[in-house]
């Protein structure tokens, strides 16, 4: 059972859907959502699985590597949870903006490129490619902002490039922010994401 | 056939830089009644001032937000570009031209369009307004002038006239106005097209201006935030919520605004429309004499009154012309 938290906001602003990183909790990205878009409603969906004591949105294979079959199942689950949470809290899911960090970002961006999803705008902190994509959904009018740290021990430069290439093939307009730290969030990247969101014109109905 | 046609204008909400200056213009010059001094329910550091006829009749309501630290808007295309106020006849329009001159309010010469005389004027924020003569109009009645304004009753503003929406994509706006909202096209004059709903007349009209030669407008003070169209009640509002959902335009769903109920929707890029109910109205939580003097808060904000009042610049709204 995963936890879902809702922060109410202006009915004239689209909801943010926030997804945390491996080992994180449903509370983690709520302050970040508030920083990036003050006044917007926030739906936070906690990761449903525990693997090696850490919360995750989808499993690894027993011998290592991403379990893409499980990813498909968990993505279905996540999209259903988004619909249910939006309906329960009476916020419009169409035009929702996803904010994800690491594991949460990975699931959200892959879903955007491979199947119909209710969101076309995403802020993705330190995402990685989960493997080259062959069946592209081409989401209309999609825009993403994504960040990468040059000393990230988890997401190599090559892997990040694989992700951005896939986004381009999927027809998604991308804005990239880099810093010279690791897998962590820093203040500059948060400010950059905030400005990008404000300039996108997509925060409001 | 639309089961519950829109009745016409409900209100127009704009953004101004100074709450005191907008009170002075709306009440002291234009003679409208500040029937509610409250705050923006989504931004409680921001005044929301409602200027109406004597008792707050739907369709007479011009409201303002005064966001602290807001930048001036930049006019262009894809904006709701002008709000208009109805005056009884052409003689009243002459009275108003003199009054605007006396008060140094910038205006254009009176002119005619779609069979009616009008007078465009602006305020110090660059907000664009119009006074439109009801000499040749029909349909939806106006309201009752504020009893304490210093404007002679036979000259007084009666309510909102047509709002003008300036867009780059005329076809899309035409589709929204006619197919979704059920307005019928009455006439075209150059770049301007006139539409009307229900009983029609100045109280139930919409003007679309086609401008694909201008850069996109940028929202800020001196501009209109949204235009609201009138529907009878909660039941007819639900009809509109469902209808807009079928058209798949971004929408808020039902919103409780306490003085009325609403639904907001993105009619076109940068164009925010609202459907709002005609009631319950502005005098359920305070008396006529308290209205506009006391800072009124809806029940769910009352607990935060002290901090809300501390965050607002005091404004003097205790004024009567007679």
Automatic annotation (TrEMBL), chain A:
Ranges of residues in domain Phospholipase/carboxylesterase/thioesterase: 87-198
The entry's keywords: Hydrolase
SUPFAM superfamilies: alpha/beta-Hydrolases (SSF53474)
Signal peptide as annotated in the record: none
InterPro entries per record: AB_hydrolase_fold, PLipase/COase/thioEstase
Domain of life: Bacteria
Any one Gene Ontology molecular-function term assigned to this protein's record: hydrolase activity
Name this polypeptide is given: Alpha/beta hydrolase
UniProtKB/TrEMBL annotation, chain B:
Any one GO molecular function term: dioxygenase activity
Listed InterPro entries: Extradiol_RC_dioxygenase, Glyas_Bleomycin-R_OHBP_Dase, Glyas_Fos-R_dOase_dom, VOC_core
Segments traversing the membrane: none
A Pfam short name: Glyoxalase
Keywords in alphabetical order: Dioxygenase, Oxidoreductase
Domain VOC, first and last residues per copy: 8-134, 159-278
Organism domain of life: Bacteria
UniProt key word Disulfide bond: no
Protein name: Ring-cleaving dioxygenase
Organism this protein belongs to: Lacticaseibacillus yichunensis
């Amino acid at each position: 059972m995963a936890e879902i938290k809702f922060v109410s906001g202006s009915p004239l602003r689209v909801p943010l859907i926030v997804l945390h990183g491996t080992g994180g909790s449903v509370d983690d990205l709520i302050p970040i959502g508030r920083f990036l878009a003050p006044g917007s409603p926030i739906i936070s969906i906690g990761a449903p699985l525990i693997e090696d004591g850490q919360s995750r949105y989808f499993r690894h294979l027993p011998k290592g590597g991403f379990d893409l079959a499980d990813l498909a199942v968990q993505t279905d689950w996540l999209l259903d949870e988004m619909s249910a949470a939006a309906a329960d809290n009476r916020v419009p899911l169409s035009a929702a903006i996803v904010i994800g960090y690491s594991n949460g970002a990975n699931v959200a961006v892959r879903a955007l490129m491979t199947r119909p999803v209710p969101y076309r705008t995403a802020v993705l902190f330190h995402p990685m490619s989960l493997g080259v994509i062959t069946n592209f959904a081409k989401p209309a009018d999609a825009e993403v902002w994504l960040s990468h740290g040059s000393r990230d021990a988890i997401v190599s430069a090559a892997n990040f490039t694989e992700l951005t290439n896939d986004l381009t093939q999927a027809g998604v307009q991308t804005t990239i922010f880099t810093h010279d730290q690791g897998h962590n969030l820093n203040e500059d990247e948060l400010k950059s994401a905030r400005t990008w969101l404000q300039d996108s014109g997509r925060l409001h109905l | 056939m639309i089961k519950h046609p829109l009745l016409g204008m409900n209100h127009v909400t704009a953004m101004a830089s100074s709450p005191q200056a907008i009170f002075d213009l709306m009440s002291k010059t234009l003679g409208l009644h500040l029937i509610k001094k409250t705050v923006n329910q989504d931004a409680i550091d921001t005044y929301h001032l409602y200027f109406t006829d004597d008792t707050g009749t739907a369709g007479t309501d011009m409201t303002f937000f005064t966001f602290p630290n807001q930048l001036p808007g930049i006019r262009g295309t894809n904006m709701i570009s002008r709000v208009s106020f109805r005056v009884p006849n052409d003689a009243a329009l002459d009275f108003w031209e003199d009054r605007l001159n006396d008060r140094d309010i910038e205006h254009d010469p009176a002119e005619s369009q779609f069979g009616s005389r009008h007078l465009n004027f602006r305020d110090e924020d660059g907000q664009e307004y119009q006074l439109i003569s009801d000499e040749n109009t029909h349909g939806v009645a106006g309201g009752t002038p504020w009893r304490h304004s210093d404007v002679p009753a036979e000259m007084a503003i009666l309510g909102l006239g047509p709002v003008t929406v300036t867009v780059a994509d005329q076809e899309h706006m035409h589709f929204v106005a006619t197919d979704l909202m059920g307005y019928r096209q009455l006439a075209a004059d150059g770049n301007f097209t006139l539409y009307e709903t229900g009983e029609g007349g100045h109280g139930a009209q919409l003007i679309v201006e086609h401008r694909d030669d201008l850069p996109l407008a940028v929202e800020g003070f001196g501009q209109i935030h949204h235009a609201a169209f009138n529907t009878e009640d909660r039941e007819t509002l639900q009809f509109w919520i469902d209808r807009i959902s079928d058209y798949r335009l971004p929408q808020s769903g039902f919103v409780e605004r306490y003085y009325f109920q609403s639904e907001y929707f993105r009619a076109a890029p940068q164009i925010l429309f609202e459907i709002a109910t005609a009631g319950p109205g502005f005098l359920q939580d305070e008396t006529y004499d308290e209205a506009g003097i006391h800072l009124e808060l809806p029940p769910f904000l009352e607990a935060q009154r002290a901090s809300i009042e501390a965050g607002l610049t005091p404004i003097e709204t205790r004024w009567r012309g007679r």
